[in-house]
Design goal:
It is built from 13 helices and 14 strands. It is an alpha/beta fold. The chain folds into 2 domains: about 190 residues, Isopropylmalate Dehydrogenase (3-Layer(aba) Sandwich), CATH 3.40.718.10; about 170 residues, Isopropylmalate Dehydrogenase, CATH 3.40.718.10. Bound molecules: 3-isopropylmalic acid and magnesium ion.
């Protein structure tokens, strides 16, 4: 088969990690007999520099014409002080909205080889760490109107609106239940219904949708407690479904407890059309251009892309197996080397390209 993938390398370490991901994808193509055709477009700070817009029309058109979008990372200090409509992040939000990618899957799993990299106590880690955060991605306070900064009573006042319609909650709840059904059949819906009306509606609608999924156990948790429970005992969670803002925060917490944000992929999908596949880490401007970045989160995002967008399960599993193999070989980029125990015997510190080389070799 022939597939068109739109590449958005972005800023900072984005181009470096993307280069390794594309090498891996090409090897998968050779091995399994697929052709991947790439279109590459500007998004984020590099697009602001080139054409003054973080998501140019040409980029959006290229994304819409593809089977899937693979994104590196966007943003950096260079663009942080521009007006909001010119920020790199604004381009990313617009891309999610335009492609209607309302469901964001963020699996936080720990490769056993990296158990000692977790920030949690060994007795907590040994109970297992395999949480899937399903985050709503195109609503909530991220997009709600009205919003702005205005003058009020002689001082500035900033405000945003947290809002969800019933249909928005229903469709993400379904995604959460479906995901739980394929895993441990436990769904925890996270809200702030003790305070927020929008969360009360969220909870009511999730309970209604639950009637269609009697085989899935549903629990509810307030977001503050969920943050604490994730750190205290993540093994209690299977799938978490939550809104955009709470999901943003909780998915970083879930990532951090694995000790290696450089390892975690994500998928953002809608009901139809291309999805967006990207590592959950940022553009890491401090190490950009130094061949130090960990490409594995992007490579694992390629695996998610093959599985979700192209229905290529064996190919996805081959990539995941190759990543596991290079970890077995003791290869570590700086992010997962530094968090290793003080005894690093048997581990080899490698750069971004060498890590890509190793994954390619393991695939072949
Ligand atoms: C994420 C990021 C983005 C978000 C930023 C870069 C706009 O933090 O994907 O989690 O808040 O959604
Ligand atoms: Mg975030």
């Amino acid at each position: 088969m022939n597939y068109t993938i739109c590449l958005l390398p972005g800023d900072g370490i984005g181009p470096e990690i993307m280069a390794q991901a594309v090498r891996v994808l090409n090897v998968v193509g050779q091995k399994f007999g697929h052709t991947f055709t790439y279109t590459e477009a500007l998004a984020g700070g590099c697009a602001i520099d080139a054409v003054g817009d973080p998501l140019p029309e040409a980029t959006l058109a290229a994304c819409k014409a593809s089977d899937a979008v693979l994104l590196g990372a966007v943003g950096g200090p260079k663009w942080d002080n521009l007006p909001r409509h010119q920020r790199a992040e604004t381009g990313l939000l617009k891309l999610r909205k335009e492609l209607n990618c309302f469901a964001n899957f963020r699996p936080a799993t720990l490769f056993p080889q990296l158990a000692s990299a977790s920030y949690l106590r060994p007795d907590i880690v040994s109970k297992g760490l395999d949480v899937l955060v399903v985050r709503e991605l195109t609503g909530c306070v991220y997009f709600g109107q009205p919003k702005g900064i205005v003058e009020e009573n002689g001082e500035r006042m900033g405000f945003n609106t947290m809002r969800y319609t019933e249909s928005e909650v229903r469709r993400i709840a379904k995604v959460g239940f479906e995901a739980a059904r394929k895993r441990g059949k436990r769904l925890c819906s996270v809200d702030k219904a003790n305070v927020l009306d929008v969360s009360q509606l969220w909870r009511d609608v999730v309970m209604e949708v639950h009637k269609d999924y009697p085989d899935v156990e549903l629990t509810h948790m307030y977001v503050d407690n969920a943050a604490m429970q994730l750190v205290r005992d993540p093994s209690q969670f299977d799938v978490i479904v939550t809104g955009n803002l709470f999901g943003d925060i909780l998915s970083d917490a879930a990532a951090a407890i694995t000790g290696s944000i450089g390892m975690l992929p994500s998928a953002s999908v809608g009901e139809s059309g291309p999805g967006i596949y990207e590592p959950i880490h940022g553009s890491a401007p401090d190490i950009a251009g130094q061949d130090k970045a960990n490409p594995l989160a992007t490579i694992l995002s390629v695996a998610m892309m093959l599985r979700f967008a192209l229905n290529l399960e064996a190919e996805a599993a081959a990539i995941e197996g190759a990543v596991s193999a290079v970890l077995d070989q003791g290869l570590r980029t700086g992010d997962i080397y530094q968090s290793a125990p003080s005894d690093t015997s048997g581990l080899t510190l490698v750069g971004c390209t060498a890590m890509g080389d190793a994954v390619v070799a393991a695939l072949q």
